[in-house]
Every structure is written in C-alpha cells, then in structure tokens.
C-alpha cells in the first residue's frame, strides 16, 4: 500500500471514531488531525472540507460493514441463518455508529449527491446478497420460491417499510435510540415469519 493510501486510511479511521462519538457538528478537522498527529494542512490536502471527509467516512464505513457481513454469512449453515445474521450485523452497526447516521438529518437537504449514491449502492449490495442467499436456499432445497430477485426486493422493501412506518407514526425524520430498538425488534419478528413461509415442506419436518 502506498504511503498516501496509508495516510488517507488513517484519516478515515480517526474521522470514523470522532464522527461516531460526537457526530458531525461537534467534530472539527483540528481534532481529527490532532488524533493522528497530522497537520491540518495535510488533512485538507486529502479532504477539502469536513463534509467531503464525512462523505468519504460514510463510504469507508459501508465498505467495512459489507466485508464484515460477507465474512459472517459465509460461516452460516443455512440461508435462513444467513439472512438473520445479515440483519443482526446491520442493526449492530446502526446502533454502534448511530451518531454518524444521525448526522444525515442535521445536513438536511444539503446532503451531497454522491452520498445519496453511496446509500443507494449499499442498498443494492443488500439486495444482491439477500437474492443470492435465497437462490442458495432454493438450490439446497431449504427454500421454495419463484423469482429469488423479486422475493429479495419484496423482503428489503418490507424491512425499509417498517422503518419508515415507524418514523411516519412518530412524525420524525430519523429514529432515536429507543425507536431503533422497536424497529429492530419488528424486523426480527418479520424476518422470522417471512423466512418460515419460504421453507420447503421437507425442511420443516
């Protein structure tokens, strides 16, 4: 790895810790530079402003989550276990990095277009993974369904629907930590019921 790449990763790791603990508004470029003994000039060489660093940090986190999810589901023995493990990992990261995600609400309508694209990319990744898990379940005889891609899309739409329905009822844009707990609980119940409905008859004996 080139020296410049190492420095960029050090900055992103430091920024991730800061943003996750204090959020976007209460974090300064000076603090991040100080955490890794870099000059502010060097920090600005890689990232022109705090918002651009925040966007890159979100992408850095999403890549980290993706690698961890793939590693975790590779160790599962069934598609059902893998889907539930994916949701568990996803929920764990949302809770751990709550302040980082909450900062999106603070930015409001000024969220950069490339950040929207990164979130869309993350959702596409989830669709691909869940679709592949459903296909694996069909191939092994564990699950029965028609179009695994369509079923995966319905599953993910329903998961997101639980989130937005809770926000609509509570008339808020971003869930607080207690609301997250409620959403996670409902996601788990829904996933259990959904996957049970896809089980092949022989798999339930």
TrEMBL record:
Coiled coil: none annotated. Residues 28-47 bind DNA. It holds the Pfam family TetR_N. One of its GO terms (molecular function) is transcription cis-regulatory region binding. Keywords: DNA-binding. Transmembrane segments: none annotated. Residues 5-65 form the HTH tetR-type domain. InterPro entries: Homeodomain-like_sf, HTH-type_TetR-like_transc_reg, HTH_TetR. PROSITE patterns: HTH_TETR_2. This is TetR family transcriptional regulator. The lineage of its organism: Bacteria, Pseudomonadati, Bacteroidota, Sphingobacteriia, Sphingobacteriales.
């Amino acid at each position: 790895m080139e020296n410049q790449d190492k420095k960029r990763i050090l900055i992103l790791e430091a920024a991730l810790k800061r943003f996750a603990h204090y959020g976007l508004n209460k974090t300064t470029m000076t603090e991040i530079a100080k955490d890794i003994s870099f000059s502010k000039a060097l920090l600005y060489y890689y990232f022109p402003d705090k918002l651009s660093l925040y966007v890159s940090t979100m992408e850095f986190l999403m890549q980290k989550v993706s690698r961890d999810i793939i590693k975790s589901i590779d160790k599962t023995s069934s598609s059902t276990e893998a889907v539930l493990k994916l949701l568990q990992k996803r929920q764990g990261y949302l809770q751990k990095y709550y302040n980082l995600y909450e900062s999106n609400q603070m930015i409001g309508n000024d969220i950069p277009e490339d950040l929207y694209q990164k979130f869309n990319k993350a959702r596409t990744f989830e669709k691909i993974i869940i679709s592949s898990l459903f296909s694996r379940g069909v191939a092994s005889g564990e699950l029965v369904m028609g179009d695994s891609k369509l079923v995966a899309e319905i599953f993910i739409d329903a998961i997101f629907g639980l989130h937005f329905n809770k926000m609509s009822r509570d008339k808020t844009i971003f869930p607080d930590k207690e609301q997250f707990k409620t959403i996670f609980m409902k996601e788990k119940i829904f996933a259990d019921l959904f996957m049970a409905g896809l089980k092949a008859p022989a798999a339930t004996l």
